[in-house]
């Protein structure tokens, strides 16, 4: 007689109104939608934060290509090459280090026609993982290195 009113758990079953609330499925689709929306927004923010790394690398590559082109046209590592380098650093708000390697200078800082050189730029991009409200942000420095080889397009008539 009592078993009929107590449900499947017998004597230890909760009271009937609580069982109604426990097994009521009304509104569950809204809860699922809220959780799915939160997951999608979190994934989108993560992907967008990773895009900053690629944008930084593309800017570094652009700076290096422009400097190489100026050196190719000038036939030397001149003030004009450094002006382009510093101007592009300001525009992109990056602060890479530039080195000119694998070059054979003729008569000072001049690079003879068809001689090759390599411009290397290195930069360490700080990637913020998260920013807690009670502590400084957690960051990882991602090292970036771009090397582009160029060839001088200027003939220097050197007096020997």
Features:
160 residues; alpha+beta; 3-stranded antiparallel β-sheet; two-stranded antiparallel sheet; 4 helices; rod-shaped; membrane
Q: Overview of this structure, please?
A:
The protein has 160 residues and is α+β, with helices and mostly antiparallel strands. 46% of the residues lie in helices and 24% in strands. The model has no long low-confidence stretch (mean pLDDT 87). This is DUF4320 family protein. Keywords: Membrane, Transmembrane, Transmembrane helix. InterPro entries: DUF4320.
Radius of gyration: 32 Å
Task: State the shape.
Answer: rod-shaped
Integer tally of domains: 1
**In percent, how much strand structure appears in the residues?**
15-25%
Q: What is the succession of H and E elements? A: HHHHEEEEE
Instruction: Give helix % range.
Output: 40-55%
Mean pLDDT comes to: 87
Pfam families: DUF4320 (PF14208)
Organism: Acidilutibacter cellobiosedens
Transmembrane segments: 38-60
Keywords: Membrane, Transmembrane, Transmembrane helix
Explain the layout of strands and helices:
Elements: H1 3-6, H2 16-23, H3 28-74, H4 79-92, E1 97-101, E2 105-106, E3 110-111, E4 116-130, E5 138-151
Question: What can be said about this structure in brief?
Answer:
The chain has one domain (29-152). Helices cover 46% and strands 24% of the residues.
């Amino acid at each position: 007689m009592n078993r009929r009113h107590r449900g499947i758990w017998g004597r230890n079953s909760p009271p009937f109104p609580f069982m109604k609330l426990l097994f009521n499925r009304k509104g569950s689709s809204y809860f699922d939608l809220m959780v799915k929306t939160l997951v999608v927004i979190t994934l989108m923010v993560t992907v967008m934060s990773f895009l900053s790394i690629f944008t930084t690398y593309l800017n570094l590559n652009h700076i290096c290509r422009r400097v190489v082109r100026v050196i190719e046209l000038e036939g030397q590592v001149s003030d004009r090459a450094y002006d382009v380098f510093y101007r592009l650093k300001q525009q992109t708000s990056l602060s890479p280090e530039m080195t000119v390697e694998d070059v054979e200078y003729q008569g000072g800082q001049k690079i003879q026609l068809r001689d090759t050189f390599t411009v290397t730029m290195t930069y360490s991009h700080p990637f913020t993982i998260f920013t807690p409200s009670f502590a400084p942000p957690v960051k990882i420095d991602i090292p970036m290195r771009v090397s582009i080889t160029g060839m001088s397009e200027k003939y220097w008539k050197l007096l020997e």
